[in-house]
Amino acid sequence: MAHYLPHTDAEIASMLEFTGLSSLDDLFECVPAALRLAGGLDIPDGLSEFDTAAEMERLANANTGADLICFAGGGSYDHDVPSAVRRLAGRTEFVTAYTPYQPEVAQGVLQALFEYQTMIARLSGLEIANASLYDGATATVEAVNLAVAATGRQGVWLSDGLLREWADVVRT
Questions:
Q1: How would you classify residue 20: left for phi > 0, otherwise alpha for psi between -120 and 50, otherwise beta?
Q2: Which residues face 73 on adjacent strands?
Q3: Is residue 136 part of a domain?
Q4: Using one digit for the tens of pLDDT, what is the confidence trace for 125-170?
Q5: What are the φ and ψ backbone dihedral angles of 143, each rounded to 5 degrees?
């Protein structure tokens, strides 16, 4: 939460002194007492992210169409992105591009991809592992390139279940 509270106690004290107020509560003196909350809010204990998502899903299921199957195709499917991802992805080392040989990506992203790739290789026991890429088509091409490099073979078989567009990218 400190990320969203930009002022230190000393800065708040300085601002209160400058405005002639003795506390932050003094800011609300202009609001009639009958309109101000007396006492605390009766808010239950917080839920974990998982439990919150389950509760939101329960509420959403009351809507018509909440359980319809999505036929959008093209790699669109139901998925979950944990809230920690937004927090981590917003860190400056992931958004500040200063990598001279690959200016479209930040050094922090390259470091994260390396760490991910290393972890996947260790967990799977494989000598090589594909790092996360921008989309499924380029990830498929990278997997094919890794397979060719690792085996020395000149080609690969593509499943008929592979999206046609992704197979086209592999072929080009």
A1: left
A2: 76
A3: no
A4: 988 887 767 788 988 998 899 889 989 998 899 999 999 999 999 9
A5: -65, -40
Structure tokens at 128: 């090589």
> pTM of whole model > 0.90?
no
Is residue 169 packed enough to be buried (19+ CB in 10 Å), middle (13-18) or exposed (0-12)?
Answer: middle
Q: Report the alpha-carbon distance of residue 143 to residue 48 in Å, rounded.
A: 36
17 inside domain: yes
pLDDT at 1: 42
Contact status, residue 132 vs residue 124, Cβ threshold 8 Å: no
Q: What is the pLDDT of residues 97-136, one digit of tens each?
A: 666 666 666 777 778 888 888 998 999 998 888 776 778 8
Find the domain containing 25 and state its range.
9-34
Give CA–CA dist 94/105, Å, rounded: 8
The answer to whether residue 25 is domain-embedded is yes
Tokens of residue 141, six digits: 């091409």
